[in-house]
Structure prediction request, 154 residues.
Amino acid sequence: MRVAFGLIAATCATPIAVATMFSVLYALQIGWFEGKDWDLVLDNMKIYATFSAPIALFVTVAAGGPLAHRLKHLGHRGFLHHALVGVILGAAPFVLFDGYIIGTKLLLDVRPAPDTETVMTAARWAALGSWCGFWSAWAHWLVVVRERPSERHP
Prediction:
């Protein structure tokens, strides 16, 4: 039952992380958020949160959960290993997708290298994915992996 709750927690943590990041960036008026109306930011937040939940569910079921179980089985119950896995798995879908887009542009446009803006956009998406992966890993670790006082051996 705890594994099911961990899956739900990991899936819900991602949209919450997106909403938190968008809110902070809007409050600080950084980058795209500078001068934007709150309603526009809120609409974008809803869209990204809606799309991030299924991705988080898929990544958690396909890789995150099994890797967390394996780490726990190997005796790595601390959060650091799980956080690193979350950061890497959170960025993975964006890195794969951006790599595909950049590679396609290179093949179709026959340019020597992608432009700086394309690479920076890919890096921003990977950073957002890592941020979400970190919080998803934290939620999963908190519910499933963390050792409770009642589970400790004397």
The chain has one domain: 2-151. The chain has a mean pLDDT of 87.
